[in-house]
Amino acid sequence: MAISGDPLVGKTIGRYEVLSVLGGGGMGTVYRARSPVFNREVAVKVINLDLQASEQFIMRFRREAEAVAALEHPHIITIYDFGQQDNLAYLVMAAKDGGNLGTLIRRQRLPLPEIARLVGQIASALDYAHQRNIIHRDLKPANILLDEDRNTFLTDFGIARRLGETKLTAQGMVVGSPVYMAPEAWRGEEPGPETDVYSLGVILFEMLVGQAPFVDKAPARLMLKHIQEPAPSVLAMRPDLPPLMDTIINQALTKERERRFRSAGQLASTLRAVITEPKRRQALEESGEDTTIMSSPTAIRKPPGEPDSAGAIPDASPRRAEEGAEPEARPARAGLPRWLLPAAGLLALLVILAIILLVTR
Which residues of the chain, if any, have pLDDT below 50? Predict the structure, then answer.
């Protein structure tokens, strides 16, 4: 998509010749540009001019570059360069020609195996970032780019923040895209991997039925829906879906963050089982767990030698080849029996009472 009339088109930012406008977002405008060194087209994100006076926004922009440049994953957009020129701050990224997931969802209803593949790729990228203590916090279809083969690439970590890093936003400030924000994000609480899992659940819902689970023009009403209302039934909208699809959506979008899928990868693996693997789907259906499949080992295991459930494309990065592949992620631990936590709490209470009795004798 090219937009004419932009004052930067035809000019140079850093060493990059601006060719056209690709789009814009809350933090800046993205341009297609040409790199004279490598003679290839790139995407250059320039921070909005009206934000230049804010040092806080410049810090956020720099943080985006540093956070994403440290991530090397086949489904996270590659960062080439970062700099400042005059009153402009810019970020240079790999250019993708397949649009974004939001456009794809609006254009057509995707086959279920394709949805499983795309969600798997997104989840693979999220788990990689989460293992490095980076939470995206603004996951939405517009921030998921596609190449010509419909492979996904996470981008726009503009509000991503390393866990434990000093906050640059005011305490309790709501950050994110409202339609995809988890309840804890609306409340201004500390984000965690489960915050991104919730957003991925919203995206999955939208991929299945063509609309988000909670929509309202009034932000206050939208907030209450995310915080209070259960997710609508996707089966009511699409009776042709596998029966367990509501269970997956309910677990991804539960208000209790500790009861969501333990990782994005677990959500993707369970989705793949329900959509493409009849034996594993049958095992899940026969497990008898109507409200959650978090503790079901069938939801996260796969037979030896089975292809990556994330559907990740091979990483051909020369740097990765030199440094060696990333260590294999440790498998998710099986959930504890539901009776164990209450029992442990009761035992601890009894021990405390016994100590008090001994001391007061």
Answer: 1-3, 166-173, 289-291, 294-342, 344-346, 348-360
The whole-number pLDDT of residue 288 equals: 55
In terms of residue numbers, what domain contains 35? Answer: 12-94
Query: Any idea what DSSP says for residue 92?
Result: E
Annotated active-site residue 138? The verdict is yes
Residue entry with tokens 């996904």: 152
> What is the predicted pLDDT for the residue at 4?
52
Pair 171, 200 in one domain: yes
Residues 230, 82 share a domain: no
Residue 117 lies in a domain: yes
Query: What does the alpha-carbon distance between residue 208 and residue 238 come to, in Å, rounded to a whole number?
Result: 8
- pTM reported for the whole predicted model: 0.76
Whether residue 47 sits in one domain with residue 87: yes
Measuring CA to CA, how many Å separate 63 from each of 32, 35, 39, 137, 305? 22, 23, 27, 14, 39
Q: Which two tokens stand for residue 265?
A: 């990868």
Catalytic residue among 127, 138, 156, 196: 138
